[in-house]
Amino acid sequence: MNVFERIIRREIPAKVVYEDDDCLAFEDIHPAAPVHVLVIPKKPIASVDAIEPEDEALVGRLFSAIRKVAAQLGLGNGYRVVTNCGPDAGQEVMHLHFHLLGGRTFSWPPG
User: Fold this and answer.
1) In the chain, what are the helix, strand and coil shares in percent, each to the nearest 5?
2) Which strand ranges, in their side-by-side order, compose the sheet holding 79-82?
3) What does the pLDDT look like over 48-80, one tens digit per residue?
4) Where are the beta strands (DSSP E) in 1-111?
5) Residue among 30, 36, 95, 97 flagged as catalytic
6) How far apart are CA 15 and CA 52, in angstroms?
7) How far is CA 15 from the centre of its chain?
8) Is 97 a catalytic residue?
9) How do strand 16-19 and strand 98-102 relate by DSSP bridges?
């Protein structure tokens, strides 16, 4: 069981900012921006590469949750959504998750 599954089960504390039947959003413990929230599915999916056709609606709900959290946190001027897929991309927890970053201006290209 990975750390995100343990957060979902409330075995590890997290600062939850949003939750519904399918998704959980909580503050990142190592923020890279003034606002840094992780949005995850409650269903264990390892990464973007592990999304199956039956997960398409769930992924859509994750993006709806991202929009709700961004509005809740006052990110009306913009925000960035990032996901890493695999170790070479920097994915540390093998559970699909989206980084919602905001509260500052971002440059392009990213690291």
Assistant:
1) 30, 25, 50
2) 16-19, 23-27, 35-41, 98-102, 79-82
3) 999 999 999 999 999 999 999 999 999 999 999
4) 16-19, 23-27, 35-41, 79-82, 98-102
5) 97
6) 29
7) 13
8) yes
9) unpaired
Instruction: Indicate the pLDDT class of residue 110, thresholds 50, 70 and 90.
Output: confident
Q: Which residues fall within 8 angstroms of residue 20, CB to CB, at 6 or more apart?
A: 61, 65
β-bridge mates for residue 23, sequence order:
41
Instruction: Write the CA distances from 108 to 45, 67, 105, 111, integer angstroms.
Output: 29, 22, 10, 8
Integer angstrom CA distances of residue 110 from 8, 76, 77, 83: 30, 21, 19, 12
Amino acid at the residue 82:
V
The residue count of the chain comes to 111
Structure tokens at 109: 């290209």
> What is this structure's pTM?
0.95
